[in-house]
Specification:
The protein has eight helices and ten strands.
Length: 264
């Protein structure tokens, strides 16, 4: 396996940085693009585990304002990250001259790939790892950052130190986030896109109920497959190999459908 650094021009005042992992004897010449979650980078444990061990060629990248990429980020800028993903997909097709077989995201990145699919319907296989469904309910901010709430109300922003560098959360960003409507996944065209959702039964950040909501809106099989990994938390700690197997098996099963029935 070779890891090659990538730099993707966004056409704005910043570039996105990523990595290409080419695998010997990959089942396809196409690539899978992986998207990291909130307060994270392409070097996160779960994303890196998939990138290094999946048998398919893989691209990982840092969203704007994260990791090595330029630009800035906010907690609710999912639409900006959709456009980041669109830039990377265009780069793969125009510069690398490869097809994009699938896009896979974890947590916030999973919401991004679902939003992308609902808007563009031009990537055949979409993998949702623990996406939040109900963004209108922001109680997880209160649950995980209770010591920050008073300062948030007083100053209008707080700084979280548990990400890659200081991460600023503003009240207006939280308001934007609560208006995200993930029911838009109903716009995913069944004849063009198939979706896999993998969620841990013990997810402490994004409730597993959201996985069933996605199944109701996108399903039934074969359009959407739902896998609940018993005992797994949000980061799939102690369940990463089970997660990898679920993703790889589904890709292999649906690759034939993509090759035979899909046309961009």
């Amino acid at each position: 396996m070779n890891e090659t650094p990538l730099k993707v021009d966004t056409g704005k005042d910043f570039a996105l940085h990523g990595s290409l992992y080419l695998k010997p004897n990959a089942p396809s010449d196409a690539v899978i693009i992986l998207c990291h979650g909130l307060l994270s980078t392409r070097r996160s444990e779960t994303i890196r585990h998939i990138a290094e061990n999946l048998k398919y060629h893989v691209i990982t990248f840092d969203f704007q304002g994260n990791g090595e990429s330029g630009g800035s980020t906010t907690i609710g800028n999912l639409n900006d990250e959709v456009e980041d993903l669109r830039c990377v997909i265009s780069y793969v097709r125009s510069t690398l001259k490869r097809e994009v077989l699938g896009i896979c995201g974890r947590s916030k990145g999973a919401s991004v790939v679902l939003l992308y699919a609902s808007m563009y319907n031009d990537v055949p296989l979409v993998i949702n790892l623990s996406a939040r469904y109900d963004y209108a309910n922001s109680d997880y901010i209160e649950k995980f950052f209770p010591d920050k709430l008073e300062k948030l109300e007083k100053d209008g922003f707080v700084v979280l130190e548990d990400g890659p560098g200081d991460y600023i959360v503003r009240k207006e960003d939280l308001i934007v986030m609560t208006k995200i409507d993930m029911s838009c996944v109903k716009n995913i065209i069944k004849e063009k896109v198939r979706v896999l959702t993998v969620h841990g039964s013990e997810d402490e950040i994004c409730p597993v109920d959201g996985a069933y909501a996605y199944d109701k809106l996108i399903g039934p099989e074969p359009y959407h497959k739902l896998i609940i990994i018993e005992g797994a938390n949000h980061g799939f700690k102690n369940h990463k190999d089970e997660l990898l197997k679920a993703v790889e098996s589904w890709l292999f099963e649906n690759q034939s459908w993509q090759l035979i029935g899909y046309c961009i």
